[in-house]
Amino acid sequence: AQAKREAAAADAQRKREEAQAKREAAAAEAQAKREAAAKATKAEQTVAAAKPSVTISLFGFGGQQDTEEEPVKKARTKPAPRGVPVLSRWRLNRDGSISGFISGSPSFEDGDAITTSAIAKGDVVGGNIVQTGSGSRYYLDAATEKSGSSRGGGFSLFGRKKAVKTVDTDKKDVADTRAQKAAEAEAKREALAQAKAEQAAKRAEAADAKRAAAAQRATEAQAKKEAAAAEAKAKREAAAAEAQAKREAAAAEAQAKREAAAAEAQRKREEAQAKREAAAKASQAEQTVKTASPGATISLFGFGQKSESATEAPSKPAPKARPAPRGVPTISKWRENRDGSISGFISGSPAFDDGDAITTSPIAKGDVVGGNVVQTGSGSRYYLDAAATASGSSLSGGFSLFGRKEEAPAVVSTADQAVEDRAKKAAEAKKQAEEARAQRLAEAQAKKEALAQAKAEQAAEAKRAAEQRAAEAQAKREAAAAEAQAKKEAAAADAERAREEAQAKREAAAAEAQAKREAAVAEAQAKKEAAAAEAKRARAREEAQAKREAAAAEAQAKREAAVAEAQAKK
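The structure corresponding to this sequence follows.
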């Protein structure tokens, strides 16, 4: 790109030098024309200052020439056609050309004095159209037609007659005009080519800048892609570690739950086994009680005799049974003991399984009758099932080896003791469960704290990475802004340079146009002065011709008078 710019600059410099050389050549040519016009003006002034009919000669070579005039043909006048230049105050010269003042020509200004090439076609008569050998056509103005021709006119500084300058409008002036237009067109083409070259150089620079920017963007995109891939990988690894920790925590919690469930199942199995053993013992005691006669006493010393208290006490009439209230345990197949307690099989109790054999503490409130609700001293309430009441009570029953009544042994522990045992076991199990739950909660809390710490560290790392990326992005934005500012300044400098170059070109073009205008004005002035001099010379020639004709006529008259006088004398 630098080589292209240098080549373009060298080419522009060469073209500027060529244009300067052309301008200097045009100025020199205009100066030469002005000098020639000045010389012609000076010669015209010399001729005008000379006396009529005098031939100026430095070496005596000048002499009178024949001044025979060619008669001018007369023809019918017709108007000038459109587009044909008009020659006014015209004169036919000896060589067949015509001198006069032209108007309506695209190659001359109106009033310029010209001399055409030899007329090849048309009658040289005012009001006619004539044509030169090169094809140029002219209309001869009849109103301003000169009398006579200029075949014998002229002057010379060396004794020879000098004819008026002949101008062939088609061959010389038109050729000069075409050459000038061609030079201007060439200059325009060169300027256009220069502008195109500069534009091409600018486009190449812009393309290079775009490619560099695209490469930079690609590099940045690749870096972003790699950073995003690394960040995604880190996130995946953190997610995998978190999932692994969760799985381990879930496995530990599930293991703790399984162990707790196994311990609970073992406890329930042991309790069920104890209940089954107690039920077996209670069943055996009931079988023993059932096989004994009600109220009978077994004695080794009065075997077979009834005791005085063998008679059963009359039982109280059972009141009307009522249903068990909601939430009150029911005791079926119950029996009232001597100490006021009740033995039987319980159901509907939250502390015992249905069918468990129990013995309550002594009844403190309520009638011990089937269908009633009784209450112990500790506040436990029981509903006595009327349908399943055992026959008789155990107040007077029993067996004795010495003729004394013995109280039936208690089958199981009292209900209050069982409740207390179960409450203790439940409290211990609850305590163990709370300790296990507290341990699991502590482990879960520790894992949660560790996970929160890991998340906090990841968040801090992500924040640091985000801050670093933000800083890098800020740096990139600042670099891009600086680059854009530099490009803007470079573009402004280029624009300023282009404006200066354009201004210089405009000034050069204005100077060249001014020079052309001055040259054209000088040339027009020279043409006008030459035309004035030509007109003055024509008038001088006419006056000289008239004087010569008058002198010739006078001489002829004198000769004729002399001849007549001589003849008369003879």
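The longest strand covers residues 86-92.
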